[in-house]
Amino acid sequence: MSTTVTPRSAPPFRADIVGSFLRPPSLLAAREKWKRNELSSEELRAAEDQAIRDVVKMQEEVGLEVATDGEFRRELWHMDFLAKFANVTVVDAGIKIRFHSEEGDIDFAPPGIRVTGKLARPAEGIFVKDFAFLKSVTTKAMPKQTIPSPSNMHFRGGRAAIDSEAYPDMEQFYDDLARVYREEIAGFAQAGCRYLQLDEVNLAYLCDPKIAAEVRSTIGEDPATLPRTYAKLINAAIASRPKEMTVCIHLCRGNAYSTWMAEGGYDPIAEVLFNEIDVDGFFLEYDTPRAGDFRPLRFLPKGKIVVLGLVTTKKGALETKDELKRRIDEAAKFAPLEQLALSPQCGFASGAAGNKLSVDEEIAKLRLIVDVAHEVWG
């Protein structure tokens, strides 16, 4: 394994993270009290503030150069953001989605969203206040903001979930959606954000032939053309970001209670992903054969980074250094080692309930990532 590659001084870092962390029991209890009106919103936020201080301290102590707020103010990785758009309503989607695990399949009935009028950003912003707090409590690491990709406003329901009177033309919908994202990103920039991640699971879902077929039958979209539609949308959403802001996207195949939804390698989307989306880096799930092999990395252009999600967040068993180094070597056959980095395959808690591992196991995985990155890249 080469150790001559220069460590990165800018994100994405050689040892990086996706974003969410296991919620402490005290925070989960506070949120339940808040739901029962036994705790005020101000008291809940104070509990969140303390939990975020603690999780930032943990990230800095394990040696990471990046820190998130663990998504501790969210119930779900995407809904808490999307539901704050003006004229977006959370609804009972009326459908069950089958997730898979090593113990068997589980059916979830996740909430859906409906666009009932013209999209707009609330006056107070969406997550800008939350980022400002994160920035205020980081001392050694760069604060990183994660938000769902704009494609999530469309993928779950398609045309049928978008009011046809407000948006008789879907191009108008995409234009407004991208505009709201630009406004929020401008707010992040003003608050000092220099590292932003868009969680773009839908492109990875389209790599699964079964899900691609369902997309055609349930929301009436062509899975072959949808990647370019989403690439154009993402580019429009981040078009006005300041040059000093690094933007990455993260792809995974589902991550709820240690389960997954999709399977299939990146081959169907690789060229669009790497060459038509104007981001600086890609966090790619690669912890199991479900994600395919590393051959799609051959399309990676110069100047962009792939962060290899080789460390699973779905179970506590710890990978070995030799195993991770061997897989990095395999990836380096298709993309230069200096354009690679290491992270968990996803967050540890895409929903508040979290995955099936302990905080100690979570920390051990982060330490492993930091150690391996140091040994591989210097």
Do you know the CATH topology? TIM Barrel
Query: How many strand segments?
Result: 12
Strand content: 15-25%
Provide the helix percentage: 25-40%
> How many separate helices?
12
Structural class: alpha/beta
CATH class placement: Alpha Beta
Basic shape? globular
The figure for the number of domains is 1
The succession of helices and strands, N to C, reads HHEHEEEEHEEHHEHHHEHEEHEH
Runs in which pLDDT lies below 50 for 5 or more consecutive residues are none
Q: Major sheet: order of its strands?
A: 7-8-9-10-11-12
Distance between the termini: 11 Å
Query: What is the residue-mean pLDDT, rounded to a whole number?
Result: 93
Give a short account of the largest sheet.
6 strands, parallel
Rg measurement, Å = 20 Å
Report the CATH architecture.
Alpha-Beta Barrel
